[in-house]
Specification:
Helix content: 25-40%
Radius of gyration: 27 Å
Shape: globular
Distance between the termini: 65 Å
Structural class: alpha+beta
Number of helices: 13
CATH architecture of one domain: 2-Layer Sandwich
Strand content: 25-35%
Bound molecules: adenosine-5'-triphosphate, magnesium ion
Largest sheet: 6 strands, mixed
CATH class of one domain: Alpha Beta
């Protein structure tokens, strides 16, 4: 049997291990079902054991002198790390992480793991690379190859089933992790990926975004307990955890409710933290951090002597690229949608596994992942057409290539005072105009009387069965509605194919079809219903010009109502 070469992303904040299974790269869920393992090591002096991962991270507050994080920053340096009374080299600390990953992975897969590919940042020098190999050897492993992180990420995208061909050979990898940021421009020549430029900041990452929220929380708490020296290590670590949770929450929702009891105590009385953070507000707090990454992107382009339009693909790597503010900045700079946003924190490990597969001569299939192939969103009135008074703006809620299941929410605003309702029209596609996208279904959401520009939150939860569970919430009015839409059987691969190529399933049609399957329904009603469904379906996919969709929809809804009433009469 061919030996499997495992791929390891030894990250500053998190590490992960992946392998190929039936030609597909798979990150292994090794710690409580999670593939990401915090790169934290702690020494339990009483038991004289080394603890790695989440349990070690949980000890940071209580045992700061026995616990170490971000060891990657010290690789290649001769500075010993003290854990309690013992000393370790950075390589030894890293080897503990590697041993933990490999041990857990062998438990999950049932394989003995000997050979590995380990990734390092493109900017790592010789000493840092050698130290990484040494860490592998200390863990009893054979390091088959050291691969640059951006190269590994690019490799994954090579094998993705939905990859888009571009004529440009230049790829930009934008990697914002927990503690470091780097941007790399690669030139692809067949199988070979050459690094043209690599810029970055080894002291900029998601943690800095958390710190901005910590400052915000501190301000709130100081008002409640002025002058209290409450910022001991435990409180600070607690606040940082709350900040990270808030930041992650804001990637998917426009508001985040922080509600934490007893962050610290004053005279034995607990002080609580309650506040709502708006995504907008957070984005303002971190605007300068995002701009610092933008500057590095400009530096890298200059170093590679390229213009933004020369770049064929932009790959997002690192968990912190899930923040919409980062994606928006790149979208603006490169004047195009940034669609590669899947599994940003695992794709380096997946790429390392793919590299391992290539070394051992494994045939690589597509790296199939459960992603939504089209963006999903709703119709909004961003720019009003002066002739019709209507708007036709496709506002995306879940971007294409997002791993499913997923859940995202956006906030919208009403137009008028006491607006009676909003119509939620769900579309699927990539065009800016809804008319060019595929309608999935629509429904009305009655509003309670409220001022103009009052917020309505639209929340999409998309599951693996192809159902979107939509929750609409008139914020502050205890007015909510939930609707489930079925978007299965879509066949559209990209915008070029006309919407008529796809079958539209919407909730009205589904309801009608269910009624048609009812044996008790009289033939006359069935015929009417059938005719209307067909006409409506054709109108939706735009097969005939000049169809009055709204009129047809009303007729169909009336027929559905008739049929339902009839069924009730029939018992
Ligand atoms: N949904 C999310 N929204 C915003 N930030 C997120 C999200 N998920 C994870 N992060 C952030 O991503 C960071 C960790 O990213 P990742 O695991 O890629 O880091 P890493 O590879 O270990 O770090 P580095 O690249 O510095 O070596 C953390 O700051 C975490 O809070
Ligand atoms: Mg990383």
């Amino acid at each position: 049997m061919r030996e499997i070469i495992f791929g390891i992303d030894l990250g500053t904040t998190n590490s992960s291990i992946a392998c190929l299974k039936d030609g597909k790269a798979e990150a292994l869920p090794i710690e409580a079902g999670q593939a990401l393992v915090p790169s934290v090591v702690s020494l339990d002096e009483a038991a004289n054991t080394i603890i790695v991962g989440r349990p070690a991270r949980n000890r940071l507050a209580a045992f700061p002198n026995h616990t170490v994080r971000s060891i990657k920053r010290q690789m290649g340096q001769n500075t010993p790390v003290r854990l309690g009374a013992q000393q370790f080299s950075p390589e030894e600390i890293s080897s503990f992480i590697l041993k933990h990953l490999v041990f857990q992975a062998s438990q999950v897969t049932g394989h003995q793991i000997k050979q590995v590919v380990i990734t390092v940042p493109a900017y790592f020098n010789d000493a840092q690379r050698r130290a990484t190999i040494q860490a592998g050897e200390l863990a009893g492993l054979e390091v088959t190859r050291i691969v640059n992180e951006p190269t590994a990420a690019a490799l994954v995208y090579d094998y993705l089933s939905f990859q888009q061909e571009t004529s440009s050979p230049y790829i930009m990898v934008y990697d914002l992790g927990g503690g470091t940021f780097d941007v790399t421009i690669l030139e692809v020549k067949g199988e070979i990926k050459e690094v043209l430029a690599s810029c970055g900041d080894t002291a900029l990452g998601g943690d800095d975004f958390d710190e901005r929220l910590v400052d915000l929380f501190r301000e709130q708490l100081s008002n409640k307990a002025p002058g209290v020296p409450w910022l001991d290590t435990a409180a600070r670590i607690r606040l940082r955890d709350i900040a990270e949770k808030t930041k992650i929450g804001l990637s998917d929702q426009p508001f985040y409710q922080v509600s934490e009891a007893a962050v610290f105590s004053v005279a034995r009385k607990p002080v609580n933290l309650h506040l709502e953070v708006k995504r907008r507000e957070f984005e303002e707090l971190v605007a300068d951090l995002v701009e610092r990454t933008a500057e590095k992107v400009r530096d890298a382009l200059e170093e590679a002597r390229l213009q933004p339009e020369d770049i064929g693909k932009i790959l997002l790597v690192g968990g912190a690229t899930r923040m919409p503010v980062v994606q928006d900045m790149l979208k603006e700079m490169f004047d195009r949608p940034i669609c590669h946003s899947l599994d940003p924190d695992l794709c380096v490990a997946l790429g390392a596994a793919a590299q391992g597969g290539l070394i051992s001569g494994e045939p690589l299939g597509h790296i199939l992942l459960d992603v939504n192939a089209h963006s999903l969103g709703i119709r909004t009135i961003d720019e009003i057409d002066p002739e019709t008074g209507e708007g036709d703006w496709f506002s995306i809620i879940i971007r294409r290539n997002t791993r499913i299941p997923t859940r995202k929410a956006e906030v919208y605003f009403t137009l008028r005072k006491d607006q009676p309702a909003v119509n939620i029209e769900v579309y699927q596609g990539e065009a800016a105009s809804c008319l060019e996208n595929v309608p999935v279904g629509s429904f009305d959401f009655p509003l309670k009387p409220a001022p103009a520009l009052s917020p309505v939150i639209v929340d999409f939860a998309y599951d693996k069965e192809g159902l979107i569970h939509i929750t609409v919430d008139q914020k502050g009015y205890q007015n909510q509605k939930e609707v489930t839409l079925d978007i299965r059987q879509k066949k559209i691969i990209n915008q070029e194919i006309s919407p008529s190529a796809g079958k539209v399933v919407n909730y009205i049609i589904e309801k009608a079809r269910n009624l048609l399957a009812e044996a008790r329904l009289p033939g006359g009603l069935k015929n009417d219903l059938n005719r209307l469904v067909e006409a409506y379906e054709q109108a939706l996919v735009g097969e005939e010009e000049g169809q009055d969709i709204d009129g047809l929809e009303d007729e169909l809804l009336a027929a559905i109502e008739d049929a339902e009433e009839r069924l009730i009469e029939l018992g």
